[in-house]
Each structure stands twice: as C-alpha cells, then as structure tokens.
Amino acid sequence: MNDITIVQISDIHLSPAGKQPSFNQKLDPYVKLNMVFDDIRKIAVKPEFIVLTGDLIHEGTANDYVRLQEILKEKEQQLGIPIQVILGNHDRTEAFYEGFLQEEPQDKYYYKKTFSGVDNYFLDTTFGNIEQGYIDEKQLTWLKENLVQNQDKPALIFMHHPIAGASLRYMRFSVLQNGDDLIEVCKNGNVKGIFAGHIHFATTYTTENIVNGVAESTAYHIDCRNHKIHYVSDAVGYNIITLSAAYEVGIENQMLLWNSEVVKEISIGQTDFVNLKELKK
C-alpha cells in the first residue's frame, strides 16, 4: 500500500439563508470554506477523499442543505476527489436528510466506505440538539460487528465529538460522553486513528495506542486555555492526514487565517463529564 492522504475539514458552520454568521464571525463562513478548497489544490499528493466532520450548517433548514449539497458536488467535480460528510450537534438531522440526501429522515446518519484497502467509519455522535456527544448502542453494535468481520484491515474512524484525552482534560463537559465504550469496541478491530472536531482548536493525543486527531474549525477558533472563559476569534484551518504504508498516522494542521481579535466570550461552568442518566432522558 502507498501512503494515503486524507483531508479533514470540520465545523464549517455555514449560515442559514438570511442569518448572520454564528458566534459574531467577521468573515462569511462560505468565503472561509472556499479558502480551504482553494488551498487543497496545492497539496502535491492527491487526497484519497475529503471529509467534513460535522457542524455543516449552523441550525439550518432543508434548503440550506440543498445549497451545501450543490456546493460540495461542484467541488468534487473540480477537484476529482470524493467528499464525505457527517453530522454535528449544530446540524439538524431531519433537514439534512430532506435537503442534502433527499431521503426520508432517519434518527442517525452513519456509514462505512473503503478506500485503497482501508475501512473508514463515519459515525454519528449527535444526541438530539444538545452540545455533548453520545454514541448509541445500535451504532456501537454495528461498528463492532464490522470490525470483527474485518480484523485484518486497517480502519479509521471519523466523527464530530472527540474522545476525552490528555489535552482535553477540561473539555469533558462537551466531548463524547461514552468514549470508553467506543475504545472498548475498537479493540475488536485494527483501528489506527480517530478523527473529530467540535472543540474548534487542533490537538493530537493517543488513547489506548490509537491516534486521536482533532481539527481546527474553518469558521472560528475557540481559545480554551482559560478553563472558565473561552474566547472566540475568526480563524480558518483544516487537517491533512497521512496513513503510511506501515499504517502510521501523521497529522498536519494547515492554518489559513488567524485573527487575534476576540469576537465573543463563553462562560464555562463545570468542566467534567455530564450525568449520563440525565443525558439519556
């Protein structure tokens, strides 16, 4: 197997028709997304695929997803690279099914695709419209069955909410709330990397010898160094993922825009995991 290059774009937060950009962004998120696609053309090795890991439209309608589908179809044709999408907590599942897929709405949107001998799992970590992520038992069972059946094949997982790790100690209130369950399922296969977004800053860490890569947002950066107050600023970034012939994972964070002006402050209460019993109600 030759090295495989994958582009991960996350948290694009495109504005619904007639709405202002979310979180006081100064630059239109559609312009920012175009900056990313223009930059992808500069990558020397053609990516195997591009994946958008959630928060596609910021609480939009079916018509907004129709527009997104048209944009991505055009980009696929221009670049000659397949584009995959998954959902985030600011997406609206019913509107996505009706507008983007033009199908009858389902509760969850997850699937598997194989590229160059590598199984790629695109998961749905949304839990209603709340901020936190959660993977239900049905989806975990589906993932486990697929991993068991393909234990010798390398696998990558893409989802919106990251698993809590060393660099996300104070982000547990917002990330995947049952990450331990996912890691346990991953032991049934040959998972090399888990890639997510959601937190709007780039970080990399390992969990049970699995590389976890979290992508910067294309819409806005969130500075979470102060655990009680998070600061929002305009930024554009994305990840370039490499899976080597030896199945080693490398991640490059590509920054295209960085504005230090704070456009919004977010007050944070408790920083630990939420009560799962309350979450499941």
From TrEMBL:
Homology family: Belongs to the cyclic nucleotide phosphodiesterase class-III family.
Pfam families linked: Metallophos
Protein name per Swiss-Prot or TrEMBL: Metallophosphoesterase
GO MF: hydrolase activity; metal ion binding
Keyword annotations from UniProtKB, A to Z: Hydrolase, Iron, Metal-binding
All copies of domain Calcineurin-like phosphoesterase, residue ranges: 5-200
Domain of life according to the entry: Bacteria
Keyword Methyltransferase among UniProt keywords: no
